[in-house]
Amino acid sequence: AWKEAKAECPWRHLLNQEEVDAVCFMADAVCGHPVYRDLLAVGDDLMTEVAVVSDMRGYYPTTPTHGDVGGTPYQVRAKGLLDWWIGAIGWYVDLKSTDDASDEGFRSSVYRYGYGFQVAYYERLLEEHGLKMQRPVFLIVENVPPYLVAARELEPRAWNSGRRKVDELLPYWSWSTTHDKWTGHSDLITMTGYPEWVYRREE
What's the mean pLDDT when you consider all of the chain? Predict the structure, then answer.
């Protein structure tokens, strides 16, 4: 039956039984975590997958890209989909899956996937609706047996780094959408080679 369903819907990823079992084990692990149970105790104020659309506003910096509009206001339409927003206490809770939910392992994920930027971006979206994010918390479930779960709050340094990145990129986003010009890679031939850490190791 699975093969027939796959043939009928080739554009969709259909889960086989092993994958279905893994998803169920992960869901059970998250539901059994005390932080998740505490969130459920909040009651009706717990909302799932909150869609937010806002017009973000600011001022263009004076840079070579924005030399003609430096100091003038900009506005850009932005949207996001939050996993959980608990308005009564200002908590934004995001569910993540990973192969390593340890402190050191997830710190690498926070950096690699830009979770600090994600939190700061959603913070700006919420602010446009008069909502204040107090605590960004990740519920992390490992996608390999025994499907361990951890709850970790984004530290202020990573949050502030994300805020700076949002402030840096929003003007570029607005300018690019307005002028339909997108900053990309160089049109010229540039040098390439090994990552810098390889050269440092060989010194």
Answer: 87
